[in-house]
Amino acid sequence: MRITVAACAGLALPWLGLVSPANASAAGGGAGCSAGARAAFQASLVKQFNKTYGSGGGFWTGAPSDPTPYTLFNGSSTYERPGVAYIALRQILGPARFTAALRQLQRVWG
């Protein structure tokens, strides 16, 4: 069984979160090739980021480096916060460089 970068690097939630942007892309004109589809995909990622980043309460209070047995696989620090970080990294690097970085991670750590 081969474990992919998506699982190893904490990309499970962002990849699951791409279902909504992919649907937005399809509604925007196609499978990611048209400008409308790319714009819809990007807008959906921004919407997802803003929603998660604006979470209140205890969402941002737990330290990811200090999980309890209860929060190890059941908390925002495990799935949602890393997902938002990857969306932010994609915004910083841009789609092409982000994809290249993921491919490099796969080659090195595959």
Detailed description of the structure:
This protein is mostly helical and 110 residues long. It has one domain. Helix content is 61%, strand content 0%. It has helices spanning 5-8, 12-17, 19-27, 35-53, 80-93, 95-109. The longest helix has 19 residues, at 35-53. The protein is flat, with a radius of gyration of 15 Å. Mean pLDDT is 74; it is low at 1-10.
Salient structural properties:
6 helices; flat; 61% helix; 110 residues; mainly alpha; 0% strand; disordered N terminus
Summarize the model shown.
The protein is mainly α and 110 residues long. The chain has helices at residues 5-8, 12-17, 19-27, 35-53, 80-93, 95-109.
